[in-house]
Design brief:
By secondary structure, this protein is α/β, with parallel strands linked by helices. The chain is built from 7 helices and 6 strands. It has one domain: Rossmann fold (3-Layer(aba) Sandwich), CATH 3.40.50. 47% of the residues lie in helices and 13% in strands. Helix 1 crosses helix 6. It is globular. Belongs to the UPF0398 family. It comes from Pontibacillus salipaludis.
Length: 188
């Protein structure tokens, strides 16, 4: 597996409404712990569409990992100016990350026209990658479910890997990070 995509929830779907929400640290660390073995096993490129939330957090994690690993990151939004209606802080984050990644290219060289652009983006990511890492909770549902259903269907006819990150994985990371903190043990 040389190329994967990462996707998952938007911040609002996870109850995260500020760019400095302390819970983002746990999500990013969980993503790092899942991405690292994939990179060590040969993943060279990670492609995202640049959605706010899990995709941009994964991008930040990957940019940090680039300092030690030979991994490349590409942002392929479905259309130009995808971030134009986002809150200002997320727009700034998107622009900053777009300047730091290895490649940025909109799949449609025009602004938003319709849902077909999102469907085409999902298909393009499936066609260009060997697998996906998706933060998703089957019981909660939400927007990543659309991509997941397409990935499962795609998997029926192609050699395609689906790796999950669940809320339980994030809970495990929270517990592990707390236990690694010496202050945690001083207060028990």
């Amino acid at each position: 597996m040389r190329v994967i995509t990462v996707t998952g929830y938007k911040p609002m779907e996870m109850g995260i409404f500020k760019v400095d929400d302390p819970n983002i640290v746990f999500v990013k660390e969980t993503l790092r712990r899942r991405l690292l073995p994939l990179i060590e096993e040969g993943v060279e490129w990670v492609l995202i569409s640049g959605q706010m939330g899990v995709e941009l957090w994964a991008c930040e994690v990957l940019l940090a990992l680039k300092e030690q690993y030979n991994v490349h990151v590409g942002i392929f939004p479905p259309f130009n100016n995808q971030e134009s209606k986002w809150p200002e802080a997320q727009q700034e984050e998107y622009r900053r990350l777009s300047e730091e990644v290895d490649h940025v290219q909109a799949l449609y060289n025009k602004d938003y026209e319709g849902p077909y652009q999102f469907r085409a983006k999902d298909q393009w990511l499936l066609d260009k990658t060997d697998g996906c890492l998706i933060l998703y909770d089957e019981e909660t549902g939400g927007s990543p479910g659309y991509f997941l259903e397409k990935a499962k269907k795609y998997q029926e006819a192609h050699d395609y890997s689906i790796f999950y990150v669940t809320p339980f994985d994030i809970d495990d990371t929270v517990r592990e990070m707390q236990m690694e903190d010496p202050e945690y043990w001083n207060h028990s």
